[in-house]
Structure formats: C-alpha cells, structure tokens
TrEMBL record:
<dbReference type="GO" id="GO:0003723">
    <property type="term" value="F:RNA binding"/>
</dbReference>
<dbReference type="Pfam" id="PF01985">
    <property type="entry name" value="CRS1_YhbY"/>
</dbReference>
<protein>
    <submittedName>
        <fullName>Ribosome assembly RNA-binding protein YhbY</fullName>
    </submittedName>
</protein>
<dbReference type="InterPro" id="IPR017924">
    <property type="entry name" value="RNA-binding_YhbY"/>
</dbReference>
<dbReference type="InterPro" id="IPR051925">
    <property type="entry name" value="RNA-binding_domain"/>
</dbReference>
<dbReference type="InterPro" id="IPR001890">
    <property type="entry name" value="RNA-binding_CRM"/>
</dbReference>
<dbReference type="InterPro" id="IPR035920">
    <property type="entry name" value="YhbY-like_sf"/>
</dbReference>
<feature type="domain" description="CRM">
    <location>
        <begin position="1"/>
        <end position="96"/>
    </location>
</feature>
<keyword id="KW-0694">RNA-binding</keyword>
Length: 96
C-alpha cells in the first residue's frame, strides 16, 4: 500500500508518460492482465487508457487490473489509470 507522499511522487513521475495499453469494448481479460504484468516488471510505472466504448466503469477496470497484476493504483484521472508495481529485477524508481 502506498502512502500519500509516495502517490504524489509517482503522479509527478507519471505526468509526462503516454498511455501504453488501452481497455476497449471487451474489457479486461487474462491476456491483457499478463501483458500488463510483464510491462510493469519492465517499467514499474505506466498509464492505461480506457476507451469511450468500454462498457465497464473505470474504477472497476482499475481494480481488476490492480488485483490481476498485484499493482497499486496511483491515480485515476479522466479515462486514464496510473499503475505502479515495484520491479523485482529492474528496480529504477526509489520511493520517498
């Protein structure tokens, strides 16, 4: 679980990032969760965009992704979710 200070730090790091994944009409599936988990191991922090045609609520999508990958939700702003998970091998972000 992240503290408020850590979330603020990660939000500032994620500000300039572009979304890597998009959740569309089909919603969240096992293949998407596996790809996001692999990307989290490589990058630790990134954004996921939720498309207009996604039928599920953005908070539900964020919870599904966080539970499936073991990541923390840093922020949900608009249709964008920021996820963070500490990498085992490629640790680059030092939390305050």
């Amino acid at each position: 679980m992240l503290t408020g200070k850590q979330k603020s730090f990660l939000r500032s790091k994620a500000h300039h990032l572009d979304p890597i994944f998009q959740v569309g009409k089909s919603g969240v599936n096992e293949n998407m969760i596996k790809q996001i988990a692999d990307a989290l191991e490589a990058r630790e922090l990134f954004k996921v965009s939720i498309l207009q045609n996604c039928e599920e609520d953005k908070s539900v999508v964020a919870e599904q992704l966080a539970e499936g990958t073991g990541a923390d939700i840093v922020q949900i702003i608009g249709n964008t979710i920021v996820l963070y998970k500490e990498s085992v091998e490629k640790k680059t972000i030092k939390l305050p």
